[in-house]
TrEMBL record, chain B:
Provenance organism: Ligilactobacillus pabuli
Lineage, highest ranks first: Bacteria, Bacillati, Bacillota, Bacilli, Lactobacillales
Name of the protein this chain belongs to: Helicase Helix-turn-helix domain-containing protein
Residues in Helicase Helix-turn-helix domain copies: 251-335
Pfam entry (one): HTH_40
Length: 491, 347
């Protein structure tokens, strides 16, 4: 088949199976590369539909796809997205499954077309044996940047993926991530043991339709007041990110009290049912905004989010770029604002370092396995030590790794602070950080230079304000009979 | 997921009887020993076994401490607590809000998993009735999905919808209309997005705690009704029956005793220690109203214990048996306490 015919067929399949008329940037390139049997690294910005690449491959070639995914919530979102598209042969093998359920899934693994796996699952012999029985069409490493200790989201479980990949017979592999510096990319390819012939598909992290702004505020009170003032001016819907669940809840209450906006909190402290409710209300336009921690957003495809505000400065630019990428997926003008207060610097440093054990803790845990066991239930850093131990990493090596992690986290935080304080074009700062060679020409609606003021009315001058007529917040009827009537159609 | 919030602990305490919070903690989280069961019986808490299976026990202890600091509870030197006048006023308010009418369901079924199952049943039946094949599934539980799939394979989606609608209408018709609406607000389905408990509380101007308790109450009673009426949906519910090993072992020992086996014979047959068998029997005495006390306690022994122990059973200690300990073992002493408690409550 010639190139034109192949393109035509791929587009036809895209429309038929997924209902889209066009591929998003990078998707076709990735799919074509995989269909040519070339392992591929795809660095595509948030919102470009990275998961479609492997879903397409699986559906098109009718071969099983195994996806390694680092976070339970991310995995669950992707499973549900696939089910939503009508694909029922999908399963997530993770710690949410009971022993019996896991056994049942493993016995029937060949029934599934898409198998999501937590990385630690690969250490389970039964899982590995079941995977070896499969003729894996494609191995996907989602959030592949987690493999690099130079990156901010390093996950020790990812270190073994190269070896596991080899044990699985070096299958065709797709490593996907939204952001990666050159150093992280080099780690990814080396540690995953990708063949030298691998294809790199990389698109810019730049999202030109998102105006970038940072505001320095002297204290917490002023920050709250500025937030409320912004919310009264900004067109919705919107997202506000917090680094603390407690403040997320508090500010949700405050916004409810001081504005007429319909708002709900979303964080890991809520049950799955509550998070589902909030997410669906947001997607169906019943909420104007969500106050969230980083638990929110994975797999959420709401195209008309107009603003993303960071009430706390994030720990690193990688996460910042991911989170602001939830805005403006419809291509319309949007805005990303960081409300910065000096205390954020300490908050983030504390959060970054708390998750890593220091030398004293390591010494204690080495001397007293009982102390490590009991601390692992409560402390993130102790849990990390246990995980490293399970992976056979010595305490001496751990000390080295954690020292490097601390240095890396501090460096990332300093870069974030440099971004907040940057006097020139913020967009170019981000591009440079991610080693992009492109330089954009600063213009109106690009970003706020330094601390100059910016005019929201002017930024959003061309945005059509869509008023939705959906009922807000509470279900429309308080009569249970009407709820039942709406739920179930009479025959 | 609905939960039992900390304020509700006040519902379990009394101004008259000093009670041990640790017993409540162990019962609610189903960490059962014979001592826990005995004191649970004394405090009339046995219906609440397994109400909070995934309870954060450290948080529970902190919450009790906080209630003491707030002077809702008064801590005694022996670790027991009494409800204060303020606590009693708060308890009365809580009692007026809502209560669990069938808490015993929690001991026998995994109610929190059943809540997920109900939500899944409603969503699947709803979407199917509107012929929607693609929707975002509200329940991420493999076990619930597998149970439902098996049922649907045998009976079909149409039967699911018809049966579920019939059962829901029948059950909700007898409920307070506001409670019925709260119950329905948890469901996702065709063009229906669930509300959070906080949103429901705000809409009705009631406390979030009241909404959570209403949900737990109606969910547990609905599944109980499905079982009791032998509904075609019941096999899905009974899949979530708790494995009650303690109860089963106790019943097995009791059966052997009533068939005439002696304790040494049971020890030999079961390869268990005598102390374990005696604990099974004490548990059986707590669980079974018709336990044959006469097989283990003679009239003379009862009279003797009646003489040497004070009237208030809560004050008893085995050391009070004193010089008679050679004749009256701890097993007999505890059995007598169970018998007297039964006798008191039957009076």
């Amino acid at each position: 088949m010639n190139k034109v015919n192949v393109e035509h067929e791929l587009h036809h399949f895209l429309q038929q199976k997924f209902g889209f008329t066009e591929f998003k940037a990078g998707q076709e390139e990735v799919i074509t590369s995989l269909l040519n049997n070339r392992s591929t690294v795809a660095i595509l910005p948030t919102g470009t539909g990275k998961s479609l690449c492997y879903q397409f491959f699986g559906e098109y070639t009718k071969q099983p796809v195994v996806i390694i995914s680092p976070l339970l919530s991310l995995m669950q979102d992707q499973v549900e997205q696939l089910r939503l598209q009508g694909e029922k042969r999908v399963v997530a093998l993770n710690s949410n499954l009971s022993f019996q359920d896991k056994r049942q899934v493993l016995e029937q693994l060949n029934r599934y077309a898409f198998i999501y796996l937590a990385p630690e699952m690969l250490r389970n012999e039964a899982v590995l044996a079941a995977l070896l029985q499969l003729n894996i069409g494609l191995l996907v490493i989602d959030e592949a940047h987690c493999i690099s200790a130079w990156g901010p989201d390093f996950r020790p479980d990812y270190l073994q993926l190269g070896q596991m990949r080899h044990q699985l017979g070096d299958p065709l592999t797709l490593a996907v991530t939204a952001t990666a510096t050159k150093r992280v990319l080099a780690d990814m390819t080396k540690l995953l043991r990708l063949p030298a012939s691998f294809k790199l598909v990389q698109y810019s992290v730049d999202r030109p339709n998102i105006f970038l702004a940072t505001e320095k505020l002297p204290d917490e009170q002023t920050k709250k007041e500025r937030l409320l003032s912004l919310l009264k001016q900004l067109p919705g819907p919107g997202l506000i990110y917090f680094s603390s669940k407690k403040q997320c809840d508090e500010l949700t209450e405050l916004i409810q009290q001081k504005t007429s906006l319909h708002v709900a909190a979303y964080h890991a402290g809520l049950s799955f049912a509550e998070r589902y409710a909030v997410q669906q209300q947001f997607l169906t336009g019943q909420l104007d905004l969500i106050c969230a921690t980083s638990a929110f957003g994975m797999g959420i495809n709401k195209t008309d989010i107009r603003y993303v505000i960071h009430y706390h400065m994030p720990q690193d630019l990688e996460n910042y770029v991911q989170e602001i990428g939830r805005a403006g997926r419809d291509g319309q003008q949007s805005i990303a604002i960081i409300l910065f207060n000096e205390n954020d610097r300490f908050l983030q440093k504390r959060l970054a370092f708390n998750s890593l054990p220091n030398s004293d803790e390591l010494e204690l845990y080495q001397q007293s396995p009982a102390a490590l066991k009991s601390a692992s239930l409560e402390s993130e850093s102790a849990y990390l030590v246990t995980r490293y131990q399970q992976m056979g990493i010595s305490f001496a090596d751990m000390e080295q790794i954690f020292t490097q992690r601390r240095t890396e986290k501090l460096r990332a935080l300093q870069q974030m602070l440099a971004y907040v304080n940057y006097p020139d074009c913020k967009r170019n700062f981000i591009l440079r950080y991610f080693d992009e060679e492109r330089v954009v020409k600063h213009q109106q609606n690009c970003c706020q230079l330094g601390e100059e003021s910016y005019d929201l009315q002017q930024i959003f001058a061309n945005v059509d304000q869509v008023t939705n007529n959906l009922p807000k917040n509470t279900p429309p009827s308080r009569d249970y009979r009407q709820v039942l009537q709406k739920l179930f159609r009479d025959d | 997921m609905s939960k039992v919030s900390e304020d509700n602990w006040l519902l379990f305490f009394s101004t008259q009887q000093a009670r041990r919070p640790a017993v409540l903690r162990q019962l609610l989280s189903k960490r059962l020993s014979n001592s826990t069961l005995f004191w649970g019986m004394r405090y009339q808490w046995l219906a609440y076994i397994n109400l909070c299976p995934s309870m954060d026990t450290q948080a529970f202890d902190q919450q009790i401490k906080l209630l003491c600091q707030q002077k809702m509870l008064l801590k005694q030197d022996d670790g027991t607590v009494l409800l204060t006048a303020d606590g009693q006023a708060c308890q009365a308010q809580l009692q007026a809000e809502h209560s669990l009418a069938a808490p015993q369901v929690f001991a026998n079924y995994r109610v929190y998993d059943l809540v997920k199952l109900l939500r899944l049943l409603v969503q699947v039946a709803s979407e199917a009735s509107w012929k929607n094949a693609r929707y975002y599934v509200a329940v991420d539980d493999f076990e619930c999905q597998a149970v439902l799939k098996n049922w649907v394979r045998a009976h079909g989606l149409r039967a699911l919808k018809e049966q579920l609608v019939t059962e829901l209408k029948k059950f909700l018709a007898l409920e307070d209309p506001q409670d019925a609406w709260i119950f329905c607000s948890q469901f996702a389905g065709h063009e229906t997005v669930p509300a959070t408990t906080k949103q429901v509380a705000q809409a009705l101007n009631i406390s979030q705690r009241a909404v959570e308790l209403t949900l737990l109450d109606l969910n547990s009673r609905f599944v109980l009704e499905l079982i009791q009426t032998n509904s075609p949906l019941a096999p899905m519910i009974t899949h979530f029956q708790s494995k009650n090993a303690l109860y089963q072992k106790s019943q097995k020992t009791l059966t052997l005793i009533t068939r005439g086996f002696s304790i040494p014979q049971i020890v030999q047959r079961s390869q268990l220690k005598e102390s374990t068998i005696l604990e099974h029997l004490l548990n059986a005495a707590i669980f079974n109203a018709d336990f044959p006390f006469e097989l283990f306690l003679s009239n003379t022994e009862r009279q003797l214990l009646g003489k040497i122990l004070p009237a208030d059973i809560d004050q008893w200690q085995y050391s009070m048996v004193g010089e008679y300990q050679a004749k009256i073992s701890f097993f007999k002493y505890r059995l007598y306490a169970i018998w007297r408690t039964r006798e008191q409550s039957e009076r």
